[in-house]
Specification:
Enzyme class: ligase
Strand order of the largest sheet: 1-2-4-3
Shape: flat
Distance between the termini: 35 Å
Pfam families: Arg_tRNA_synt_N (PF03485), DALR_1 (PF05746)
CATH architecture of the largest domain: Orthogonal Bundle
InterPro entries: Arg-tRNA-ligase, Arg-tRNA-synth_N, Arg-tRNA-synth_N_sf, DALR_anticod-bd, tRNAsynth_Ia_anticodon-bd
Number of helices: 12
Number of strands: 7
Organism: Streptomyces marokkonensis
EC number: 6.1.1.19
Length: about 350
């Protein structure tokens, strides 16, 4: 069971409890599932009981006790434990990694895309999200990337800048907005990151955009050739290198006459990597809700850093013949490549097959 499927399962449990008359609440549009925090256990935890406690007129732990039986009897869930004020900690059957990889490969670079139901996306009601920024290059790049991410979650977005863009901004960094020039008085400037201390155009499109997007909006970005260096100290290099390695592994596997096939992997399942991949939809939703492309950029670094130690284990070594484990590991590597490519696309950055 994947995180998306588990979220739907939690909502279904709420609906069953409501239908049985055990809870009197409106079933929410979404249920957040995430790796357990301190004091938690299992594979995932949800705060749905805390979310429903006030409208249900019951303590959170009582709501959790009502929901627990509706989750325990679901195929794929092995146990549900209550912790803290009412967190539901869910343990999944051991096939979860294969199901996660299957889901990612099914969606490809669009894994994690939503339908507008995420908080802050605004697409569910058809409302247009307007992003207006001052005539500042970093603000324009942040607004454009935020718009891409919001659209990935189903939102309708319109971007505007307070003055006409410098043609070099479009020519070098590829930035565009829907409207240029003075905006109506009622439209506030709502994208205002700390301006860059130097001109990022000499860095080129990919490094220039990364330099502006990777730091949080309240942080002053560094504009220097460190973003161009092909070494591990450069986060952009690590992300793009990890993607290029996944593409190389697929090519090498084809030469060895075997292909990816999600399944069980002997010798460990790279839990940090699986957790990072499972968290990708949440990272996209959070980046959309907060209009914060930096959240996506840092998440891609997390995925790449978890993947790089794993990727050398994918192919057979020496005279070893390809096995089911090799095919499963290749599937996981291709899932990594899909997530990294999709994330870089939303930031407006190229994901090269060779590096």
């Amino acid at each position: 069971m994947t995180p998306v499927e588990l979220s739907r399962t939690v909502l279904h449990a709420v609906r069953r409890a409501v239908d049985a008359g055990e809870l009197s609440v409106a079933v929410p549009a979404r249920a957040v599932v995430a790796p357990p925090g301190p004091g938690g256990c299992g594979d995932y935890a949800t705060n749905i009981a805390l979310q429903l406690a006030r409208p249900a007129g019951q303590p959170p732990r009582r709501v959790a006790e009502v929901l627990r039986p509706y989750l325990v009897d679901v195929d794929g869930i092995t146990d549900v434990v209550l912790t803290g004020p009412g967190f539901l900690n869910i343990s999944l059957h051991g096939t979860a990694p294969a199901a996660l990889v299957e889901e990612i490969l099914r969606h490809g670079p669009r894994y994690g895309y939503g339908d507008g139901s995420a908080d802050g996306a605004g697409g569910e009601s058809g409302r247009v999200v307007r992003l207006h920024c001052p005539h500042d290059l970093r603000a324009v790049v942040v607004a454009e990337a935020a718009a891409r991410i919001l659209r990935s979650q189903g939102a309708l977005v319109r971007t505007s800048c307070a003055a006409r863009l410098d043609p070099a901004w479009t020519a070098v960094l590829g930035v565009r907005v829907d409207a240029q020039g003075p905006a109506p008085a009622e439209l506030p400037v709502d994208v205002r990151p700390v301006p860059a201390p130097a001109d990022p155009l000499p860095l080129g499109r990919d490094a220039g955009r990364w330099a502006l997007l990777h730091p949080a909006a309240h942080d002053r970005p560094r504009i220097g050739d460190e973003h161009l260096r092909q070494r591990e100290s450069n986060p952009l290099f690590r992300v793009r290198y990890a993607h290029a390695r996944t593409r190389a592994l697929s090519r090498n596997a084809a030469d060895l006459h075997f292909a990816a096939e999600p399944g069980a992997m002997t010798g460990g399942t790279a839990p940090d990597l699986l957790a990072a991949l499972a968290g990708h939809p949440r990272a996209l939703a959070a980046a959309a809700a907060h209009r914060a492309p930096d959240r996506l950029a840092r998440h891609l670094v997390t995925v790449a850093d978890a993947a790089l130690p794993f990727l050398p284990t994918v192919l057979p070594r020496g005279g070893e013949k390809p096995s089911a484990t090799h095919r499963a590991r290749l599937a996981l590597a291709e899932a990594v490549g899909a997530v990294l490519a999709g994330g870089l696309f939303l930031l407006g950055i190229d994901a090269p097959d060779h590096l």
